[in-house]
């Protein structure tokens, strides 16, 4: 987390005024350069700290003026360490007459959710089984080795090359799920090891950037499916999603593409192009612009390894072609798995919901099976993952019945679908959003 003494002294001086505050006062401090948050009824001035926050500048800002207790607990496996860095930022606490929750949130629901988290922690649901992740990494490396062995023994014919491409795409997809585990600090007790292995897997095995991933993904978890806060619903005007945005675009007569046909052109510009075009460009740009030189070295090491291995069989041109074929295949896998739990769900502007309700509105689960668990990297348990992002994924199944029971108690909808239904719902939701846009475009 870092930080020198002079910086701490300066922040402490800035926060010298200690007192009690109402929610109305806290909610005035939401703009860049003037941001307060509340954690466990304590009020913190994070205006300067946001620039140094390891999880990125924006994630704390998304909670400015709000109770951030559940987000704070969700993202930090070592709360005692983080609280040390928060002490200089403390400026006071809520007045005794103020409720612990802001904006009319259901206090009983919030307290029951926090009690559930404590129970799951006591039952060992946040403890890792190291063998699970060792075997997962082993099967990725084995797939990489099998691809090279097949080229050595069977040559570069079309059929063998097609099989090799499938194997490499599988290895890349599974490495994507593994880097996700390390990125969420859900593997090691010491988060430094998580950070190191995250850079190795996403950098050396995938050719991407840990810093770029952290910046995007933690915002998604903090405010899923919320416009202007979740980068994953920034569709670059290629798609309109949810029920609110299509009508908004239609009324404003925005027509960058024929959105009433987006469920058709999705197959051509969505799954095949996200990773090889958009992500590839964004990752390289982000590393250079933000000076992520360590990430860049890890990324370069992936390309050096790949081309040293495959140019000896295919030459440069065909090795580049194979690389892009693998990326397109991986991109399909990634898009269908990640979007099946989000795109068909509620997508809207900030509604200031409690943690449980916000995550359940934005996520759904897919039926459990050995294949679904492996295929999706256990993101078929998207609800449990979003509620408890530092929980090792092999324990989601233990938490799921308890989460469902809590949702039933408070009337929060807990959705679970088949894999086929979830995939179909992506297309259906895009079609429905397109129709809403067309109706608003023509008639409002």
TrEMBL record:
The answer to whether UniProt assigns keyword Oxidoreductase to this entry is yes
What organism is the protein native to? Answer: Carassius auratus (Goldfish)
Spell out where the chain crosses the membrane: 265-283, 303-326
- Topological category with respect to the lipid bilayer: Multi-pass membrane protein
**An annotated GO cellular component:** membrane
One Pfam family linked to the record: Cyt-b5
**Which InterPro entries does the UniProt entry name for this protein?**
Cyt_B5-like_heme/steroid-bd, Cyt_B5-like_heme/steroid_sf, FA_desaturase_dom, Fatty_acid_desaturase
Family, according to the entry, reads as follows: Belongs to the fatty acid desaturase type 1 family.
Q: What is this protein called?
A: Fatty acid desaturase 2-like
Localization: Endomembrane system
Gene Ontology terms for molecular function: oxidoreductase activity, acting on paired donors, with oxidation of a pair of donors resulting in the reduction of molecular oxygen to two molecules of water
Q: Where is the Cytochrome b5 heme-binding domain?
A: 18-95
Coarse class of the primary localization is membrane
Q: Output the PROSITE patterns linked to this UniProt entry.
A: CYTOCHROME_B5_2 (PS50255)
What Gene Ontology terms for biological process does this UniProt record contain? unsaturated fatty acid biosynthetic process
User: Pathway it acts in?
Assistant: Lipid metabolism; polyunsaturated fatty acid biosynthesis
The UniProt keyword set, sorted, is: Electron transport, Fatty acid biosynthesis, Fatty acid metabolism, Lipid biosynthesis, Lipid metabolism, Membrane, Oxidoreductase, Transmembrane, Transmembrane helix, Transport
């Amino acid at each position: 987390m870092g930080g020198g003494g002079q910086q701490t002294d300066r922040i402490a001086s800035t926060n010298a005024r200690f007192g009690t505050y109402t929610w109305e006062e806290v909610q005035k401090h939401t703009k860049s350069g003037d941001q307060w948050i509340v954690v466990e009824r304590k009020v913190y001035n994070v205006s300067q700290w946001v620039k140094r926050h390891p999880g990125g500048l924006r994630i704390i800002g998304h909670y400015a003026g709000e109770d951030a207790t559940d987000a704070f607990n969700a993202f930090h496996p070592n709360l005692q360490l983080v609280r040390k860095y928060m002490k200089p930022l403390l400026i006071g606490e809520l007045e005794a007459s103020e409720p612990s929750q802001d904006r009319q949130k259901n206090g009983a629901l919030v307290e029951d959710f926090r009690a559930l988290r404590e129970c799951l922690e006591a039952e060992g649901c946040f403890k890792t089984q190291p063998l699970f992740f060792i075997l997962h990494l082993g099967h990725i490396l084995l797939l990489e080795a099998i691809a090279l062995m097949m080229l050595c023994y069977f040559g570069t014919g079309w059929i063998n090359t097609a099989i090799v491409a499938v194997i490499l795409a599988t290895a890349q997809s599974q490495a994507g799920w593994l880097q996700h585990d390390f990125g969420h600090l859900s593997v090691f007790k010491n988060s430094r090891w998580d950070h190191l292995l995250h850079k190795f897997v996403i950098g050396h095995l995938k050719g991407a950037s840990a810093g770029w991933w952290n910046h995007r993904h933690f915002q998604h978890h903090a405010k899923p499916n919320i416009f202007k806060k979740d980068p994953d619903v920034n569709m670059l005007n290629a798609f309109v999603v949810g029920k609110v945005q299509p009508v908004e675009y239609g009324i404003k007569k925005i027509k960058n593409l024929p959105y009433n046909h987006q469920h058709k052109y999705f197959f051509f510009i969505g799954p095949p192009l996200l990773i090889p075009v958009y992500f590839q460009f964004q990752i390289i740009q982000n590393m250079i612009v933000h000076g992520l030189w360590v990430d860049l070295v890890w990324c370069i090491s992936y390309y050096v390894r790949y081309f040293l291995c495959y140019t000896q069989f295919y030459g440069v041109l065909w090795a580049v072609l194979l690389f892009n074929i693998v990326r397109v295949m991986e991109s399909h896998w990634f898009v269908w798995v990640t979007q099946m739990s989000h795109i068909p769900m509620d997508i809207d502007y900030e509604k200031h919901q409690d943690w449980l309700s916000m995550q359940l509105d934005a996520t759904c689960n897919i039926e459990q099976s050995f294949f679904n668990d492996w295929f999706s990297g256990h993101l078929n348990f998207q609800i449990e993952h979003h509620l408890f992002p530092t929980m090792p994924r092999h324990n989601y199944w233990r938490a799921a019945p308890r989460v469902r029971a809590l949702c039933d108690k408070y009337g929060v909808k807990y959705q679970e679908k088949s894999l086929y239904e979830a995939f179909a719902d992506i297309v259906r939701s895009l079609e429905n959003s397109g129709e809403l846009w067309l109706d608003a475009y023509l008639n409002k």
